[in-house]
């Protein structure tokens, strides 16, 4: 049976809902939708009621389209106020015992037992390397014989004041949160292969008002920061120059968003009435306005990248809805002084930079299923042959999901709870 996953990516400007089926390591899109987001500003939920309504609406649309029911989702949360820890743990095994999934999970749990702020909550624990009598492996060594298992991990935390409101909003929309990851790592899961993660690469996720910058090397997410520039800066530059509303400026950016001066360069796209006469703006003028704003934003990002300036010219990938500009890679390469690629999923139905995180989250969960064991139902779809409901694999390990506190999601309570 193929795996079916539902993923919700909540941003300040848009919400992406993606339902996909993993078939032979490839993703088949069953449903995708991008809708405006309300109630979230710079990654912080300011109006839960508005956000809950948005989630309910897009999920209802998906249920009607699929003629099914989404019961639980994988959730990506903003990277804001996240912290990174490189950790490890050692699991003692019986003499020459074969490693099981339970041993892997135990190792991941143990790697979270280190001192951190009481305001932090573990979001995800990502295995990087496994060591034992079998040698060193990047893949879970299930079935291998060893006297002990050493697990090197990347532990990502978020501030509770950021994380819990997202979990609560999803649950109030009638869904269960089955797995969580920060947006930056989910994007990397889709955009980078193993070579990038080992040799080093930079990922820039351009959102509406903020951009997340992350650096990967030796299999780890090494550096993570957020800066206050994004698609909003470009829209504002258009609005100020053309003296129009932000809504109209956003519509122009979507329609004419190119940094190429040669496309319809003399075509008039807007006219503004000024006290001394009418000012016509051509496509070329529009490209100049966008380029100036883009260069300013990229210079802010460049300053943040100075911390990893070790003399190497790492390739940079740009993702996110705020980066949907033709020839952005060329302008960014000039500013950042290195190779830059703009990345979007090459999948029918979601060839949109805003869906990179959602796609990556599906593959992230599919990989986790290999060592987390049995999964609960996430999506119920009708069986085409006999109209009976078929329950597909879901997004989390089947365990005791009794809540110890109303503010913990079931995932956090079970997977990262204390060892008994």
TrEMBL record:
GO cellular component: cell division site; cytoplasmic side of plasma membrane
A single BP term in Gene Ontology: cell division
Stored Pfam families: FtsA
All residue ranges annotated as the SHS2 domain in the record: 5-191
SUPFAM superfamilies referenced in this protein's UniProt entry, alphabetically: Actin-like ATPase domain
Domain of life: Bacteria
Annotated InterPro entries: ATPase_NBD (IPR043129), Cell_div_FtsA (IPR020823), FtsA/MreB (IPR050696), SHS2_FtsA (IPR003494)
Alphabetic keyword roster: Cell cycle, Cell division, Cell membrane, Membrane
Assembly, per entry: Interacts with FtsZ.
Family: Belongs to the FtsA/MreB family.
Job description of the protein: Cell division protein that is involved in the assembly of the Z ring. May serve as a membrane anchor for the Z ring.
Name assigned to this protein: Cell division protein FtsA
Gene source species: Faecalibacillus faecis
């Amino acid at each position: 049976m193929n795996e079916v996953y539902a993923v919700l990516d909540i941003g300040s400007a848009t919400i992406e809902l993606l339902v996909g089926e993993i078939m032979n390591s490839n993703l088949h899109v069953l449903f995708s939708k991008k809708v405006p987001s309300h109630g979230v500003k710079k990654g912080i939920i300011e109006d839960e009621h508005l956000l809950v309504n948005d989630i309910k609406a897009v999920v209802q649309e998906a249920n009607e389209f699929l003629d099914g029911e989404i019961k639980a989702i994988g959730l990506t949360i903003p990277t804001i106020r996240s912290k990174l820890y490189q950790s490890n743990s050692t699991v003692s095994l019986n003499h020459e015992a074969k490693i099981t999934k339970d041993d892997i999970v135990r190792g991941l749990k143990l790697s979270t037992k280190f001192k951190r702020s009481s305001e932090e909550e573990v979001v995800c624990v990502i295995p990087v390397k496994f060591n034992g009598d079998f040698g060193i492996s990047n893949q879970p060594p299930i079935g291998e014989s060893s006297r002990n298992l050493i697990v090197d991990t990347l532990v990502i935390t978020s501030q509770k004041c950021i994380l819990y409101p997202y979990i609560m909003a999803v649950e109030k929309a009638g869904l269960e949160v089955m797995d969580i990851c920060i947006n930056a790592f989910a994007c990397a899961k889709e955009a980078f292969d193993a070579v990038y993660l080992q040799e080093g690469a930079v990922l820039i996720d351009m959102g509406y008002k903020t951009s997340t910058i992350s650096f990967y090397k030796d299999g780890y997410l090494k550096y993570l920061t957020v800066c206050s520039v994004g698609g909003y800066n470009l829209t504002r530059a258009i609005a100020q120059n053309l003296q129009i509303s932000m809504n109209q400026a956003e519509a122009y950016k979507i329609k004419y968003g190119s940094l190429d001066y040669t496309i319809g360069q003399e075509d008039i796209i807007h006219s503004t009435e000024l006290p001394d006469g009418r000012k016509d703006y051509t496509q070329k003028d529009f490209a100049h306005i966008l380029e100036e704003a883009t260069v300013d934003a990229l210079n802010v990002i460049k300053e943040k990248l100075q911390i990893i300036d070790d003399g190497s010219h790492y390739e940079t990938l740009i993702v996110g809805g705020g980066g949907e500009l033709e020839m952005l890679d060329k302008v960014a390469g000039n500013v950042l002084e290195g190779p830059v690629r703009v990345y979007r999923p090459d999948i029918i139905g979601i060839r949109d930079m805003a869906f990179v995180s959602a796609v990556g989250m599906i593959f992230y969960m599919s990989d986790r299923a290999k060592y987390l064991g049995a999964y609960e139902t996430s999506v119920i779809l009708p069986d085409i042959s006999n109209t009976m409901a078929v329950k597909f694999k879901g997004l989390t390990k089947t365990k005791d999901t009794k809540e110890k506190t109303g503010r913990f999601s079931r995932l956090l309570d079970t997977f990262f709870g204390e060892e008994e």
